[in-house]
Structures are given as structure tokens and as C-alpha cells.
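Feature request disguised as a bug report, sorry. It would help if multi-protein outputs had a clear separator. Right now it looks like this:
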Amino acid sequence: MAEPKGNIQSRIAGWFDLSRPPFQTACLLPFLLGTFLGWRLNHVFSLPVFVLAVLASVLVILSTHHAGEYFDDRQDLTSKRFNPNRFTRGPGAIGGFWFSPSVPLWTSLITITLAAAIVLVLQFALKTGPWTLLLGCIGVLPGFLYALRPLRLPEKGIAEFFVASCYGWLPLAWAFYIQNGTVAPCIHWMALPIGLSIFNVILMSEFADYAADAAAGRTNLLVRLGLDRGRILYILVSILSWVSVYFSLGTGIPRKALYLYLPVMGMSAAESFLMARRKYENPLLMEILSGLNIAVHLGTTLAYLLAFT
């Protein structure tokens, strides 16, 4: 194995970029919301269950990012040449020669194995419920198979829907279930706008990467739809997320959630307006919009969290 290039600082930076900790909040915040609601609604909380489940969630996210780096490095480098947007494609750590090209594959396999072991402990040792393993597999397998050849979900035009589920409904419902042994109806309603917001995070990243994806033959949803139909889809998903927040209030969610969500909705509306004006053609503005899009996702989750405080 070739010796990785660069000093200690660059290697640490490479591992940090590869693991992308800031992006893990997109999954962990809904998980925290589900845990908090389990305590707020039913006064149930187990610290060992919480710690192990958080660790399993982090490991799944790490496995996804590492597998994506290994299988997608050529397209990542193409993306950087076309449009170096910090909020879109992976860091291209392999291309930066921070470590051997095979390392992300092995770390992905190790982290996914550890996550699966933790899920087994949760169900059979901590008795978190008969659906723990199934729900865990729903999160573990798509995360690793996301970039695995020959499946390659991003090239099937369906990866965006998997991400919406795995970063929206799944962490929220799983966190609530493993603490309570059931899932409250309001969880499903809250998961809808949260999942829709992360769907738009992925879709917008594809706008920034459109030229690179097309050049590399990456047939994701936006490449299949084209830019014009893609921006219409983005706007429709945004509107649906606003409407779903309103209708979720009829399921026992405090009305305060709507008022807390209004600033987030305003940000989302501004982004939709700019997308309608085809501002995705401006690389600098696109990077700003990508960051704000993540803020919309996190803000949607926080609005529900704060509504129950």
C-alpha cells in the first residue's frame, strides 16, 4: 500500500472532510427530536438506548459517506472542476492523496458492521421492541448500498427518495420507537415536511453539480428531468412542505410550531423564487442557496422541537 501523502494536519483534515460531520446534523437532529418527543409525550427515556442508537446512526452516516467517496471519486473530481461548491459533492479526499484509495471502502464496511451489531444489542439485549432490527436495517442497508455498484441508487433516479426517508421519517420514528415501543401518529406528520426539506437539499445539490453529473454519466433525478422540470419539482416540493406543516397541527402538535416555522417558510419561499428565476446558473449564489437550503431543513426540525418545549 502506498504511503499517504501530506503531513498530520492534512491527514486529519482529510478524515474530517471525508466524514463530513456538519452534514450529520441533517440526520441527528430528527433523531434528537424523536427522542425528545418520547420523553415529552410519554415521559420515557433510557440513556443507554439513546447513546447506543446515536452511535449507530453516526456509524451509518459515516459508512454512507465513505462508500460514496470510494465509488464516486472520479465524479467528485469532475464536480470540483466544473463547480467547487462546499455544500454539494464529497470532498475528493482520495484525489487529494490523503490516504490509500481502498481505505474508505474498508472503513465503510467496518462502520456498517459495527452499526448492525449495535442494532442487535438494542433489540435483543436492551429489549427495545420487535421492530428495532427491521427499522435499523431500513436505515443501515440503503446507507451503504447508496453508492455501491452495481446498484448505484443515485444513477437510478430514486436516491433522492431514499434520502428523504432515511433522513426524515426513519431517524424520527426509530428514535421514538426504541424508547417507547410504538410510534405516535404525530411523528408521521412531522416527518413529512422534514423529509421534503431534505429531498430539496439533495435536489438543489444536483443543480450545482448538473454539468459535472451529465459529463460523468451520472443519471440522477435532475439529469433525467432536466433543469426546467427540476426547478418546477423543487418549487412544488417546497410548497408541499409548507402545506404539510399546517396540516400536521391537527395531530396534537402545538400551534406554536406554525409560528416558529414562519421564518423558515419565508427563507424557503425566497429560495423557491430565486430558483424560479433560474438563479442556479450563478455558481456563487448557488453555493449560498445550498447553505440556506440546509438551514431550512434544520429549521423545520427545530420548529417542531421548540414547539414542544
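(second protein starts here, but nothing in the output says so)
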Amino acid sequence: MTTKADPDAPVLRAVLGPYKHTQALKSGAVCSSKLRLDFADVSPINRAFAPMVRELRFDVCEMAIATFLQAKAYGKPLVLLPVAMAARFQETALLRRADSEIAGPGDLAGRRIGVRAYSQTTGMWLRGILAESYALQPQQARWITYEDAHVAEYADPPWAERASPGKELLAMLRAGEIDAAIVGNDVPDDPRFRTVFPDPVAAGEAFRRRHGFTPVNHLVTMRRDLAEARPDIAAELVAMFKQAKAAAGLAATQEGALPTTRAALRPAVALALRYATDQGLLPRRLSEEEAWEGSPPDDGGA
């Protein structure tokens, strides 16, 4: 995998986030004689999701798990690679004002909760946690959104409404126009905000004890026609991701490691499918077999 790529090898247009575990791929320290990767510069990475599901603009693309499941259910020609790119506890992303009367997740019934898009993966995980642990169903709150889903065919459910043009998530929370907000990976360092979960770390650990994994936010997808025509390339890509992860010092047994096998990722995909179905994110019930269709089989690696 560290051998120089054949100049006649296919060149795959790829887009990945700037992580420690992608550095070796982007620098060329991890490469292959079977393929070459030509990286597009898209920042933040979520701006690549809509072009991928709507236009197949890339050959290989990092993608939020909720976006992939929606794309698959709507028949988009994508294949899931068993490579987790980002995983974390979600509870730190659910915020309230410091002076709010909301004392915990159980107080969110009937409240207005802002989220970038109803289909956002962090929102999907948090709604699932709220339903599972606090008996708060999605339709028992009002979900205020600011963007459409990456998959153009999807329409928000009746219990979601669009914020007025020009409104911004955190500004609305500061002003009291919404009662809580779901942010992304970058939680604001603002003393005016507190997490809705009184102890978000303990709540995250409780999720991991219950389900056996840390929630996965982003995986890797590729075009189905390419995966079908060259299954050896799909398998080679997975092997390259594994080597890049090892180069970054992420051992398979390490706390917080990012799985790179179907076996390790199956529980996360299965639960995401259940949550997405329960929350009205999918137009039809999608089976696990459909979600993994075309994905290269595990070879026993980490």
C-alpha cells in the first residue's frame, strides 16, 4: 500500500475531512498501485454531501450516516464503505440558556428546539436518545430548522418548521426565540449556554454501555457503478483507510477508535436505521442488507 501508484491506475476524485487519520492518505504517505486519489478541497466537509447525493460529483466521499441512509432509501447509486470517519458522544451538542428553567432532557416536551436541518445526524442521534431514555417522541417538541436536507427529495415532517429567513440558530437561543439548540461538532464556548444534559459525559457513557458503541456521525461512500465495476478498488480503499488509521496511531482496541469493518459498524448502522425510521427521516423502511449492499466484505482486519 505504500508502493507508488501505477500512472495508468484509475484516478478517483475524493473528498474527506481534515482529520489526523486522513493525513497519510492526503499526503500520499499511504498510496496504492491500484488507484490514485485526487482530493477536492471542500470545507466544512458537510458541504460535500449534497453534491454527492444529488450529482455524484465525487467518486469517494465522506458522508453523514443520516444522509447516506436517506440517499439509499431514495435510490441514490451509492455504496457504503465500512470506514467510520467521525464518532462521538452527542449529548454535549444539546444546549439551553444558562438562565433557562429547563433542568434536563425530560423538560423538553412542548419546547422549541433548533437544529440546522431536521435530517442532521447529531439531531437524529439525540432524538433517538430522547425517545429511548426519556420517552420524548419527536412529535412532542417543535423542531425549528434552517436548511433543507442534503437529499433533495426529502421533506421535513409536520412537527418541524422553518425559521424565518435570516434567523440564526445560536442568536435565536440567546434571544429566547427557541428553548434549546442542537449544534454540530463545534460547541460554542459561551457562558450564556449550558448543556441540557446535566452530566453529558455520564449520559454518553450510559449510551455506550447500553448499545456497545460510540455514535458514528460520518462514514465513507463511493459511487455504486465504480464499486460494481471494480470491487477490488472498493476493497483496496478500505485497506488504505485502515493503514492511514494505523499511521495516525489509532489502534483497533483504543478508546474512541474509528471502526473499519462491517462487523464493528453493524450495530451503529442498525440503530441509526431504527432511529431514522422512527423519526420520519426515510420514505420507506430500509433493511440492513440494503444499507450494506455492495460494500466490500470484511477481511478480518481491524
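Even a blank line would do. Unrelated, but nice: The chain has a mean pLDDT of 93.
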